[in-house]
Structures are given as structure tokens and as C-alpha cells.
Amino acid sequence: MSAAHSISGLNLAQQEAVNYMHGPCLVLAGAGSGKTRVITHKIARLIQTGMPAERIAAITFTNKAASEMRERAKSLIGRAAGEVLICTFHALGVRLMRQDGAVLGLKPQFSILDADDVLGILKECGATTDAATARQWQWTISLWKNMGLNAEAALAQAKDENERHIAVLMARYEERLTAYQSVDFDDLIGLPLKLLRDFPEVREKWQKQLGHVLVDEYQDTNATQYEVLKYLVGERGRFTAVGDDDQSIYGWRGATLDNLKKLPLDFPKLKVVKLEQNYRSTSAILRAANNVIGPNPKLFPKTLFSELGEGEPVRVVDADHEEHEAERAVARILGLRANSQHKEWRDFAILYRANHMAKPFEKALRRAQVPYKVSGGQSFFDRAEIKDLCAWFRLWVNNDDDPAFLRAITSPKRGIGHQTLQTLGEFASRYKLSLFAALFSHSLPSVLNARAVGSLHEFGRFLNDQEYRARHTHGAEEARAFLTDWLKDIAYEQHLHEGEDNDKAAAARWTNVLEFCDWMAGRCGGQIDDAAGVSTSNATKSLLEVAQTISLLSTLSEREKDQDVLTLSTLHASKGLEWPHVMLVGVNEGLLPFKLDEAPAREDGDGAESPAAESARASTQQRLEEERRLMYVGITRARTTLAVSWTRRRKKGREMVPGKPSRFIEEMALDKTTTKEDPREKLRALRAEFAQKAQAAAASAAKL
Fold this sequence. Notes:
It is globular, with a radius of gyration of 28 Å. Helix 5 (115-125) crosses helix 6 (131-146), helix 13 (283-293) runs antiparallel to helix 26 and helix 16 (384-397) crosses helix 17. Helices cover 50% and strands 11% of the residues. It folds into four domains: 12-99 and 189-278, 3-Layer(aba) Sandwich (Rossmann fold); 114-179, Arc Repressor Mutant, subunit A (Orthogonal Bundle); 305-377 and 562-678, P-loop containing nucleotide triphosphate hydrolases (Rossmann fold); 381-553, PCRA, domain 4 (Orthogonal Bundle), CATH 1.10.486.10. It is an alpha/beta fold and 704 residues long. It has 28 helices and 18 strands.
């Protein structure tokens, strides 16, 4: 063990971050510098100094990261880790709204709509059948919500006719959500903000409840999430934000580096700790990463270093075209596998800028019989059969959830035609009722014949019965028996066979259904942690309780365990992961950085740059900086070897166009005789710096 490490296995900078507990703290954690270790050790330290575990919250961005952190905390702290609230921002939002949403007029069993539901409602609000147009509206509304704007504010700042139109649609859309007792994913941040900002009693309750808040991947927070954090921690500011400005790659999703700039202004006593020692990559890989990120402006300059030795030089591979690039990549992988200690396929990854670039690599891997998975591909929860089942669960939880009602009543079809449903919808709109409430209205027979009303009533009674049973079904065995009976009752397997051209496809979908039911039953039995973070105990739960958390779950991480396969992944989806051997492919100008569309600078009459041209230039510069951070993320995924490839020609539509290596390859400065940093020297300097700090602290204490 290096002298820079303490008994607990933390280096000096990590210890400093862990031991600072009484105020706001920003930990700038470079790639591979042990940030999760710092977070879990800090949780342990807070508990050790007397803070009750239930008063600590650790917030992450994905369910997977939350469950990993929960496991790491458990192995470090033991049972007390189960009391710590470890969850995503969205799950925390759900918790706030289930407990205190009543002041906003929300009942505790509100529904969470998925992207498809939102799309359907927007099509309805905008009277269009064009999915692409509705999707554009959806993205714009989502971006506005992440900026903290409601329909009124969006309308006030609309730049053109199109934005004014979307803002008007947004107002209609928000009305529908209120009527359906539903929220979308963005509301899981926006509405908690409203709760904390506008209701002092709710704010005080949560500030008392949370003694310390830790935020992982802080650089990925958007404006609304930052405001939520500010209100949660109050003026005392007992929080630890852990992030890396060099890995901020989600600007297109509303993430903003302004949140890093605001911290020292909003919290003048902010302590900044830099973690610069990398435990993942060789010096050769890190040098390439430091060189690439160098040209970006720095809020808090840092330089990563490694004690893992120089390692293999970073290779640049040029190929004639995409197919040739894929062949060379597979040949390299087979060669490395034969000659290195890493013999497993899971040790290799091929990373690219956009999903469509995977195709030639998939073909080449199949030819070479290399097993692989595409990361960032279709989520288990995005499959039609799983969405069908989830619609029923959502409806048990919230009878007013109209999108779920329509999906459940038609999947499988129950002899209720679209005409009947249309009439029911018109009737419900007229009397401002949900579809479910309209179904039992005494006036319904005035618009529908007795047979149609009878079929609707039968569906309503069946649903009520299922909801009652789900509420009283506890534990794994009971849940499994209930779900088996229910699937038989609705003849779902038959429905799948009727909807597919061949039995094989139907059987594969039915296997997904059974797997999902097993997983649901496991959650009822407490065998599987609640990844949504809504409940942290492992006691048995009712099927209805488990159904409440479903909308928050986006991946079935259990499915990917122990697969020995090579990973194909976009750079965005690779963040937070690492592999011994990485191939970064398609590193061409126009792909990485992605086409920047530099606008020609226009001049005003006096020779100065016009405001529009200035703004376009600033936007281009911002995008280039984000693309550079994306390259940096790609490089720092590699532990032992890294190869970067580009093509001399590439497909553009049906044509082949000349390709040019990305500017980032030159920025890596691989061919220059770069001064190789001596990690021992860096460690000596760090030790001296910490000794000086300790001396100064002791001297000032002696004066008091």
C-alpha cells in the first residue's frame, strides 16, 4: 500500500472529503478517482459521528447507480445502510409528492406517465396524428420544464410562432395531467420544487428530516434539480456534491455547468476537494485524456495522474471505410484476447458516438462468432408486452389514469370496440370525468346501448376486484399465484399468439412476461431491493405497493448479471463504466465532434459582429466543448489498452464521402514527446501540501 493511503484505504484527498461534514462540500472527482468510495465512506463517517442513518440521503441519476451504491454501502456499514435513503432524483421527487403532494391537489396514488403516454396526450391536444411533430413538442416541453418554466412562463419568453404554439399546447397538456391525476417524468422534479419553494411547512419538514444530502454525478444536474437541492439543504448547506466538470455530457438534456459555477456564490463557505489520483487507467491513457480536455475552459483546474505505470501506448487505427474499420476492430480484439491476461469477452468494449454506427460492428462480430450486447438498446420496460401489464398495474393504483385505462381495456381486446371507447371518451370529456369514473355514471346509458354499457361495467368490476386482491396479496408466493391466475383470466398468452405472425416470436414475448412476473413476485417477497428507492426496507410488500413503483423503473439490471459478452455502446451510455480494453471508433470530423454547423459570422454596419452571429458562435463553442468532454469520457473508460479509429471514407446517405480524422486525435498529442509525469513526484507534492495544511490548522488552533 502506498504511503499516501490511510488504514481505511483512502488517499489523503479522499480522507479530506470524507471528514468534512459540517458544511457545503464540492468533491471534484476525476474519472476513476474513487468517487463512489468517497460517498459510501462519508455515509459511514456521518453514522459513526452520531447522525441517524434515516437522516442521510444519497442521490444518484440512475436506478443502476443507486442499487450499486446501496450494495457498496451495505458491505461497508452493514444493516444501517438499509435506513439511508439512496435513490434517484426522480424517486426522491416521488417520495416528496406521495407524502406532501396533497397541498398541490395530488392524491398519494397519482400515476407516472411514460414517454408513449405523453406522446398520445400531446397528439390529442394538438389534434395531430404525426408522431414526429408530437415528439418535437414533447422534447421542447421537457426542456422548458427542466429549465423550471410552466406554460405561462414559456409563452412569455417564446421566440417565434412555433414556440408560442407549443406553449399553448403545454397549457392544454398540463390541464389533462391534472384531470388524470398524473405526472410526467419532468414533473417528478418540477412539482417537488414547487412544494419546497411555495409551502414553508413542507420545506421545514424536509430540512429537519435530512441531516446531510450527498449528490452523485453533480455535473449532470439541471437548473430545477439544483433548486430542489438548495431548498432541501437550506442555509446550513449540509451537503456533499460529487462531480466532474470534465464529464458533463448531457447539455442536450438540460444539464448545465452553471450549477457548478453557482455553488461558490450560493454557498460562500463551500469547501472544494479535488480527487486527481486515478485508480483505473495507465499513464499513457490518462495523458491522452488530459491533453484532449486541456483546451476546454476550467472552472476548477485538475490533472489526473496514475500509479499504474506507463502501459501500452494509445493506438490510432485508420481504415478505408466502416466495414474495414469493423474488421480491424474485431481482429484487434481477437489478437488482444489471445495475448493478454484478459480472456473474457466482458473485458472488451467498442464505443461510438451514435447508435446507427453499431451496425457494421455487429455484422463483423457475428461473422467472427463473438458474443456481444448492445448497451443503450431497447429497455426491457419498453417492450409492448411489459407496457401492457404495467398499464393494468397503473390502473389499480390510480383509476383516473386514462392512458393506462385505454391500454388495459384493449390489451387484450375484450369485445369493446373503438366506437364504444370513443363515445365513452367524449362523454368523460363533457362531464370532466376520468374514463373509469364515466364508466359507472348513471347517465352513460343515454349515449351507449345496453350491451356496450354491460361490457364496460364487466371490465370495471373485474378491475375493482383485481385491485382489491392486489392490495391483499403479500409476499412472493401469493404474488406469483395471483399473477398466474390473472394472466389466465385475461387470456394474455393467447393475445400474444394472435398478434404475432409466428409462434416463435409470441413464445419469446411470453417468456418476457413470465420473467417480469417472477421479478414482480421477487419484489413482493423482499428478495429484490426496491431500485426506485421509494421503500428501503426488505420486508414483504403487497402487490399493489410494488405496482406503485413500477413507472420509475427503467431497467432490469438483474438481467445483465454475469453475461460474458463484449459491449457495444454509445459514448453517452458508457459513462460510469470501465473495461480493460476499449476501442473508440468512428472518430472522424463531423461524427466526433458531431457536425458543428459553424454559422458564418455576419457583421453589423460598424464592423462589429452581429448579436445573432455572436450567439451562434458561442453556441458552437459550447457544443464543441461538450463533444470534447464526450471524447474525454470515451478515453477514460479504458484501463489497460485504448485504440482510436477513423475512416478515410464514410457513408453519407447512399454516397461515400472523404473522411478526415477528428481534431481530437491531434489534441491527444500521441506522437509528441510529452513529458511523462512521475506519479511519485505528484504524491510527494500532495503529501507536502496536506502536511502544510495540517500545520497551519494546528497553528491557528494554538492561537485560540
